[in-house]
Amino acid sequence: MKYRRILLKLSGEALMGELQYGIDPGRLAMYTGEISEAVRRGVQVGIVIGGGNIFRGMQGVARGMDRVQGDYMGMMATVINSLAIQAELEKKGISTRLLSGIAIDPIAEAMSRKRAIGYLEEGKVVIIASGTGNPFFTTDSAAALRAVEIEADVIMKGTRVDGIYTADPEKDPSAEKFDTITFTEVYERGLNIMDLTAITLCRENHLPILVFNMNREGNLKRILDGENAGTLVTD
Q1: What are the extents of the domains in the chain?
Q2: pLDDT in tens, 43-56
C-alpha cells in the first residue's frame, strides 16, 4: 500500500452529482464505497468536505451578508455533508467519528489532534467538519491544517478532472497534464489547485498533495496501489 494515512479533501459541489443543489444519493454511495474499500485494506482515512452544494459564505457576502456570519453558515453546511458521509459509511459497516472545529454537541466531538490520531489508529474514519472553525479560511486551508495535525502522508484532493493541467482542460483542449509538479511551479504558474494558504502550509510541512478524479470509480484504489492516476505536488 503506497500510503498508510491519508486526508481526503472533497468539495461540497461534488456531492451534487447531476443535481442543482444538495446531495445526490448515487454520488454519495459511490464516494463512500471507495472510502470503505480503502479502510478495509488498512488505510487510515481522514476526510474534510466543503459545503458549497448547500451554502458558500462568499455567496452570502455577494448579497450583502456579513462575511463572518456567512462563513459560519458555510461551516454549518460542511457539518450537514459530513453527517451524510458518516451515515453512509456507517451503513456500509465502517466505524466513524465526526469531529468539528466548532462546538456542536451532541452531533460531533471537538477536534483535537490527539483524539483524531487515536481514532485513526483504531481503524475509524475520522470526518472533520466546520473547516478550521474560524471565518476567512476555506476548507482547502482546513484540509491542509488537519492533514498536518493528523500527520497524514498525503492530501488527496478529489476533483472532477484527473489531475493538474497547464490550463483548464474543460475549456482548453490543448491543455497538458502534469504527472508531478513542485510547489514552486504551482506558485509560478498561478495554478489554482488550492488556495495559497493551503499550498503554503503544505509546502512548509513537506506534505504532498495528490489531485485526482474522484468521480472515476476505482481511482482511489488505483492511487493507493501506486498507479499514476492523478498529479502529485511535492517539494
Answers
A1: 5-234
A2: 999 999 999 999 87
Tens of pLDDT along 147-169?
A: 999 999 999 999 988 999 998 88
Cβ contact 147:203 at 8 Å = no
> What architecture is the 5-234 domain classified under in CATH?
3-Layer(aba) Sandwich (3.40)
